[in-house]
Amino acid sequence: MQYLQRLPLLLALAGSLVSGILNLLCYRSNNEVLLHMVIAMAAFYIIGLFIRSTVLTIKTEVDEKREKQEAEEKVQKEKEQAEERSVEKEEEFLGKNIDLTVNYSSDDSFDPLPVSEFIRKQLKDN
């Protein structure tokens, strides 16, 4: 991260160094070389500031998105755990409450099979 903070200075120094070397190779006067180096230094410093601010902005946006995504994953994980707990609670009581009164009617209209009557009738006839 410190490299990113020093980026404008490093670009300015590198730009002025390259500008100075090129101007000296062209056999220009020292005044012209220094003027070109100062102009290059200022231009590259401004470019470095722009690059640094852009990279820092991108980094903060990525960090915010990552935090938001982690928060959403955490909420979703908590929901899943809550659903699992509710299913476990439902399964815990499953089978403990059995209703034995299925189709229960209050009138006692139960008639035993007429088999005994049929057998008696057959025995009397024989």
Walk me through what this model shows.
The termini are far apart. The model has no long low-confidence stretch (mean pLDDT 85). The longest helix is centred in the middle third of the chain and has 63 residues, at 30-92. The chain has 126 residues and is mostly helical. It has helices spanning 2-5, 7-25, 30-92, 115-125. Helix 2 runs antiparallel to helix 3. It has one domain (2-92).
Task: Put the structure in a nutshell.
The protein is mainly alpha-helical. The chain has helices at residues 2-5, 7-25, 30-92, 115-125.
Rounded average pLDDT: 85
What is the chains' assembly state? single chain
H/E element string?
HHHH
The overall number of domains is: 1
**What does the largest sheet look like?**
none
Quickly give the structural class.
mainly alpha
| Percentage of residues in DSSP E strands | under 5%
Cα radius of gyration in angstroms: 46 Å
The best one-word shape is: rod-shaped
The total of beta strands comes to 0
N-end to C-end Cα span = 113 Å
The DSSP helix count reads 4
- Which ranges are low-confidence, i.e. pLDDT below 50, for 5 or more consecutive residues? none
Helix content: over 70%
